[in-house]
Amino acid sequence: MTDAAELRARTKELIAAHPPAGTGRTDFLKARFDAGLAWVHYPVGLGGLGAPRDLQAVVDAELDAAGAPDNDPRRIGIGLGMAAPTILRYGTDEQKQRLLRPLWVGEEVWCQLFSEPGAGSDLAALSTRAVREGDSWVVNGQKVWTSSAHVARWAILVTRTDPDQPKHRGMTYFVCDMSDPGVEVRPLRQITGEAEFNEVFLSDVRIPDSMRLGPVGEGWKVAQTTLMNERVSIGGSRIPREGGMIGPVARTWRERPELRTHPLHQRLLELYVEAEVARLTGERLRQQLVAGHPGPEGSGMKLAFARLNQEISGLEVELLGEEGLLYDDWTMRRPELVDFTGREAGYRYLRAKGNSIEGGTSEVLLNIVAERVLGLPSEPRTDKDVAWKDLAR
Q1: 240: CB partners within 8 A, 6+ apart
Q2: What is the pTM for the complete model shown?
Q3: Could you say which of 37, 77, 272, 320 is the most buried, measured as most Cβ atoms within 10 Å of its Cβ?
Q4: Is pLDDT above 80 for 389?
Q5: Catalytic residue among 196, 230, 297, 316
Q6: Percent over 70 (pLDDT), the chain
Q7: What separation in angstroms does the CA of 233 have from each of 152, 294, 301?
């Protein structure tokens, strides 16, 4: 069993062999992956050492102290938080060897082809078809709200492969090559003026069967692994005290006493406490992950994340008064990442509106918490045993 002392020794060996100050960023990250120090809980040969997940903090602390580069996790969050755990659980040995190293290093960006114009909150209603032709599948359909599609090399894709089955069955999960000539990415301009989201059109895209994840017809089961990890990565990320959206508001309150009022003070105190509770709950959730795969508790964290971001950003705009109504730049851009804390209050307020939609709508997550955490009765579903092709659309 790998312990903290051994991990510290391995990390120091890595730093000695590849001094961060004199080693190129990508070369250092590749060496770190090969040393098993990328994600220590992954298997040997796949960036890990089969060590307990909580020992990753030991490695990260040593590398931070040495000034080592990170892999820019905000830019490759979909790959790290959603694609990698799914590939690890359902991928073949060849898929794991080919995909995980460039994913973690950041050489290949990933996106998520799940939602569709007619299948957003009800993902199981998706209609993108994949038809088997020999050793390949031919895919046709449309996906929407796809973050990072304009810079992605690969996508995790869920398709309909058997329309005669009920909607939660007859789905199959693939890894899609975004450089295929049949993939067209179009920007979706948002309320912020930017287009970090996209819509993706798939026209006769050929995917080898070797790029299928999981058995044919079990795409919904594979997708659940992705979605549970997505909600943990969104709502349960590790942040310091006063990290995230509460930080800019707290700084403004301390630095601008002329803006203070008693009612705003009361609201700030309430939101500060809630943000700290959410942060500590996220820490507990990460500790639970050490024992196994993520569960429905991640949905509760993602719910809290969305509500808090929207309420805190609203308080910040109100605190700033007329200044809060200013917005610096409506230029159409296609950014590679979302920078909540590096922009002005107006951006945070507008961008936070999407938090209750992306990564699972708050309404759907409330159902998940009610049924899978609280044990309440499920809502009546009349379409569970009806073939997808016979559903009204």
Answers
A1: none
A2: 0.89
A3: 37
A4: yes
A5: 230
A6: 95
A7: 19, 10, 10
